[in-house]
C-alpha cells in the first residue's frame, strides 16, 4: 500500500473555509452569472483495490523525422494549417501586399536598350509577322533598317527612298518587304539580303501619281493597301491598283487591315474622318467624323470589331465597328496629341505614343506584351519593358509562384489607400506634370461653365452629352433606302452639298443633330 | 440439427453482410437496415425472420453479375471531409443571397472567391490526415479492466490528478523522461524563466542577478553570468540569439553568449515584459505605471502609455490580436494597444487585487486570479464571466498551454486544469507540489513540459497533452538550422506588422470599411448638404445697386450666413446632448454615493 503524502492536508481546511465563506457570500452569489465551482477535496491515499495502472503518452519527436538526412537534401518543412498557429492573417497579408507594391516600384526599370544607327529621325516601324526578333524601321532620310532585337544590331540597311520613308510592311509569307515614301513610289525588296556588298536594288518599283502616306499588308492574301489621295488596293503581282476607294476629298494618312476579319480595312483622313472599307465591296462601308483629326487607328488582334483611334484632342477612342454612334471607351491621360497606337498581341492592352514625349499603356491587365518599341526624332529606337519591374528570362517555379502570390495580394488590397498611393506614384517630367494640371483646370472650368449654362437656361434645353459621344460629330452609314432619306428630309436635317452626289449614289447619312449645328 | 444448420448458414450470410459493411463506406440505407434487423432478431431468436433474410441474401449472391453492373465505385468522388473539421479552417460564413456587389461581375467575383475560400478550408481539413504526431495524454485504467481494454478505448472520465511525476517518468521513454529534471540553484533565487518561441532554449534569471540560458533538452549551456543587480524579468526576443532582461534600473539586452548588446535607459524599473513576435515589439510594464512599447527591429520607442494605475506587475498578451492585458490592484484588468492612450477595454474582474492574468492561445478566453483566491475565466468575445474556481491559496501565476491546459501556481503547488474554460471542472487534471514557493511558470511550446521557476532553482515537469504536437515549420521550427533561422529572421522582418494595425479585431483590415465612409458622408452632409433653400430675394435699390452682379453678391452673402448658422446649430445640438449625458452621469453617481454619518464632520469644500 502506498500513501500519498505529497498532497497536503490543507485541502480539508480549504473546504471548511470555503463552505463557511459560501454561507457568508450566499446573498452575493446570485449576482455573479458565472458558474461557481469549488474544487472537491482530493483523497491523498488510495487503497490497493483502487490502485490503477497508468498509461501515458508524451510528445517525443524523433529528430530523424524532422531533419534532412544529408546536406544535399532539401530541408523538411512539416506544415500545420491550424489557424491558431498562424495568427494575424489579414495583417500579414496586408504587409506583404504593401511590400510587394513597394518592391514593384523599386524594381521598375523599364528601359532595355536603344537601337542606334539611323542618321535621321525615325518615321515608321514594322514588326516581322513571323520572326519575333526582327524589326524594320524607316527614317526621314529615306533609309530602311532591319534590326535583330536579340543582338540589338542592325542587320541590313536599304537606301529605299528619296525623302521620307512613309510606311513599311512585310508580306505574310515573309518573302519581301514593301516600302512607300515621299518620292511617290512603292518599292518591293527581297527578304534575304543581297550576297554581295553592293548597293541593294529593289525587286520591283511602282511609281504612283501622288505621295503614298501609309502601307499595310493583308493578313492572309497577297494583297496590300496604300493611301494618299485615295485608298488603293494592290495585288502583289500587278503594277496597277485592283481597286481604289474615295469618300471625301482630303488626303488620307493611315490605313490598317483588320487582323481577324481580314477583309476589313480602316483609314483615317486629314478631314477628321475614320473610314471603314471592305475589300470585297466596291464602295466604302462606313464613315465616322470626330471633332478633331485622328492620327492613326489600331485593330484589336483578339476582338474583330474593336479598334482604337489615336486622336489629336489628346485622347484615344475605342470603337465597336458595329456601333459607331458612341465610343466604348475614352482613354485620357496624354497631355498632347496622340501620334501612334498599337495593341499588344493579347489584345488586353495597348501602347500609345504622344507629342508630350510620353508612352503610356492603357489599360493594364494581367497578360502583357514583352517590349515596347519607340522611335523618335532623336534618331534611335528604344526598347522598353511592358511591365517595368518584371524579371526577364525564364522564371524558376518558386519565383513564378512568388510573383503570382504577390500579384494576387496586390489585387486584393489594391483599394487600400497606402497601397493605391504607392502603386499610382510616378515621377513624370515637369512639362507633363504642369500640363496635366492645366488640362484638369480646363476641364473643370468647362464643366462648370456647362452646369452654369444649364442652370440658367430652360430645363433640358442643353442636353447632357456623355463623354463617349462628345467627340463624335457625324456617323455616316452605308446604303439606306429612299424612305429613310425622306425621313431625314422631314426632320429637316441638312446635308452638305458635297455629300449630295454621294447620297445620290446610294450612301446616306445619319447625323447627330445636336453636334450638327457646330459642324 | 436442421435448426442448427440454418443457424450456421444465417451466421455466414450475416458475416457476409457485415463484411460488406466494413468494405463499403457509403452503404445504401436498405442494406444497413437489414444488418441491424439481423442483429436485433438474433437477440430475440426469431429464426423465421432470419430465414427470410438469409434467402434474400442468397438470392443476392446469385445475382452478382447484375450487381457488378450496378455496383458503383465504393470510394466514388473525392474523400468526404466532415463539416466540423472544416469549421476550424473556415474564414467566416458564406454570404449566400446577401452577397453584395455593384455589378453582376462583382457579385460573380465575390462568389468565386467564396468558393475558393471554402476549397481552401476543405483542403486544409483534409491535410489533417497527414499530421505526423498525436497529442500526449494520461489515462488511468483499473487493474481489473487492464487486460480487456486497449490503450485508447478506456480512461474517459477516470481521474488523473493523483498521477505523480515519478509515475509518469517511469512509464515514458528515456528521452521523454529526461525532460523531467530539477536544477538546484539555491543562491540567487527566486527565478524567473522564459522559453524561446520554438521551445528549444530556456533562459533563467535569478532575482539576485544570476542570468543563464541553455538548451534545456541537451542541457547545453549557452552562457551563465551574474549581472550584479536585481533582475525582475527575462524575455527572449524573436530569435534565440537575443534576450531582454529587466534589471533594477534599466532594461538590458544580451546575446546568446551573455554579451551585453544594449542598455535601454528609456525603459527603467521594468517589472514585466512581453514580446510581440509579429510586430517586433517589446512591451514592458514598469514600477511607476507606464506601459512602454519598444520596436526591437529599429530600437525605437513606439509608444509610452501612462496608465495611471500604479505599479504594474501583472501582464499578459493575447497572442491572437497582440493586445496587452494588465491586472491592477483594484481588481480590474485593462487591455492596451500602442495606438491608444486609454485602455481599449476595462474589465472589473475581481473584488480584490488581480494577481495574474493569462490568455488562451486561441485568444478566446482570459483567466484571471485574484487575492480573493479565485480563478475566473472570461470570454474575450463577449467580455462576460464563464467559470469561477476557488483554489487553496489563490494562484499567483497562471499560464495557458498551447492546447489550452491552464496551470495555476499557488504558493508551492501547481494545479493544471483541462477544459477549464468551457466546462466547469471539479478536479484538476494534474497536481504537483514543490518544496519551495513558485515564482514563475511557463509551458514549453511544442513540448509536453511545464517549467517552473522557484526560490530554489528550476523544475521541469511532464504534463502530457499540453504542447501542440504538430508545428508549422514555416512559422516556428524547433529543428531549425542556423541558416534557416537567419533566413526566417529576414523574412519575418520583411513581414513586420506595423504597430498601428494592433486592434481588438485583428481581421479588421481585411474587411470593408463602411464606418469611415458613412462618417465621411455624414460630415459632408452636415457641412454642405441639407441646407434650407434660399428664400432671400434682394429688393430693388436705386443708383445701380441692383445690377445683376451686385444682387448676386448680396444673395451670396445671405447664403453663406445661412450656411454658417446651420453648422452652428448642429454643433450646438451635439454639445447640448453631450452636456446632458454628463449631467445625467453625475446625477447617477451622486445617487449611488454612500452617505456616512460622519460626513457632517467633513470640511465644507466651499
UniProtKB/TrEMBL annotation, chain A:
PANTHER family: DDB1- AND CUL4-ASSOCIATED FACTOR 13, U3 SMALL NUCLEOLAR RNA U3 SNORNA ASSOCIATED PROTEIN. GO terms for biological process: maturation of SSU-rRNA from tricistronic rRNA transcript (SSU-rRNA, 5.8S rRNA, LSU-rRNA); protein ubiquitination. It is found in: Nucleus, Nucleolus. Keywords: Nucleus, Repeat, Ribonucleoprotein, WD repeat. It comes from Stichopus japonicus (Sea cucumber). One of its GO terms (cellular component) is small-subunit processome. Residues 386-472 form the Sof1-like protein domain. The lineage of its organism: Eukaryota, Metazoa, Echinodermata, Eleutherozoa, Echinozoa. Its main location: nucleus. SUPFAM superfamilies: WD40 repeat-like. WD repeats lie at residues 115-157, 158-192, 331-372. InterPro entries: Sof1, WD40/YVTN_repeat-like_dom_sf, WD40_repeat_CS, WD40_repeat_dom_sf, WD40_rpt, WD_repeat_DCAF13/WDSOF1. The keyword RNA-binding does not apply. It comes from the Eukaryota. This is DDB1- and CUL4-associated factor 13. Belongs to the WD repeat DCAF13/WDSOF1 family.
TrEMBL record, chain B:
Keywords: Nucleus, Phosphoprotein, Repeat, WD repeat. PROSITE patterns: WD_REPEATS_2, WD_REPEATS_REGION. Its main location: nucleus. GO terms for cellular component: 90S preribosome; small-subunit processome. WD repeats lie at residues 347-388. Residues 13-23 have a biased composition (Basic residues). Residues 1-106, 541-593 are annotated as: Disordered. It comes from the Eukaryota. GO terms for biological process: maturation of SSU-rRNA from tricistronic rRNA transcript (SSU-rRNA, 5.8S rRNA, LSU-rRNA). Residues 428-506 form the BING4 C-terminal domain. Residues 29-49, 56-75, 90-100, 549-590 have a biased composition (Basic and acidic residues). It is found in: Nucleus, Nucleolus. Scaffold component of the nucleolar structure. Required for localization of DDX21 and NCL to the granular compartment of the nucleolus. Part of the small subunit (SSU) processome, first precursor of the small eukaryotic ribosomal subunit. During the assembly of the SSU processome in the nucleolus, many ribosome biogenesis factors, an RNA chaperone and ribosomal proteins associate with the nascent pre-rRNA and work in concert to generate RNA folding, modifications, rearrangements and cleavage as well as targeted degradation of pre-ribosomal RNA by the RNA exosome. Part of the small subunit (SSU) processome, composed of more than 70 proteins and the RNA chaperone small nucleolar RNA (snoRNA) U3. Interacts with DDX21, NCL, NOP2 and EBNA1BP2. This is WD repeat-containing protein 46. It comes from Stichopus japonicus. The lineage of its organism: Eukaryota, Metazoa, Echinodermata, Eleutherozoa, Echinozoa.
